[in-house]
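Data availability (excerpt). The following record was deposited with the supplementary files.
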Amino acid sequence: MTTYDNHTAGPVGGVDVPEMGGREVDVVDVGRMGFKECWELQERLFRESIATKAAGGHPRHTVLLVEHPPVYTLGKSGKESNLLVAEEFLKSLGAEFFHIDRGGDITFHGPGQIVGYPILDLSQLGIGLKGYIDAIEGAVIETMAEWGIVCQRVEGASGVWIVEPGRPMRKICAVGVKSSRWVTMHGFALNVNTELRYFGYINPCGFVDRTATSMEQELGHKEDVERVKERLLAHLAEKLDVNKINTKRLCQLTNVG
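Predicted structure:
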């Protein structure tokens, strides 16, 4: 579905990465929040992190977890033709539509989906952008394996996929990232109990021969979103070599709320 942008000066992929620093991450589960409101919160934290770095400081790592009401987002390299219905029809569904500044094409966010927006300073974590994307995808793959769902990466297509002979490829998790000065925003969207009919109104990620799926679809029953969240965070912390996760409330974020 989505791809990632590299607006970071210097090489990526673990080469010439600035020296490692703090490895504590603040995780803030904001619950149900509208896309625009959460996007503005992301932007604020992102700008604050960049400003802190520019002043010679070390920004805190933050991961926002959220569940959005129905919304479609189109990346800056996407095609509006991959939205297969009129925006007025989306409004009749109670869904919003936004052009945003990540890479990639169109996707859907909605109830039953775990959306994660890590605002991380990769220079402190000692990891390049490619390694960061690999860490997210790897964490999802290992999490899904705990539920017996076999997933993989697909060459030339970001995110996490289920690939089986004789069936179209099915995406269970989308990944799309923006970065500047080694600070990230946007992130991932894992379909747990997501209503898949919403994906029928788009060409997800711009693909016409692939489809979306969810844990519920693959397993035949709903899953405990909080349990999946817990295991996903554990795997992501391991992949990023994070040594401490601090659970915080929205009002505890610096200068927010």
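Summary of structural features: The first strand starts at residue 24 and ends at 32.
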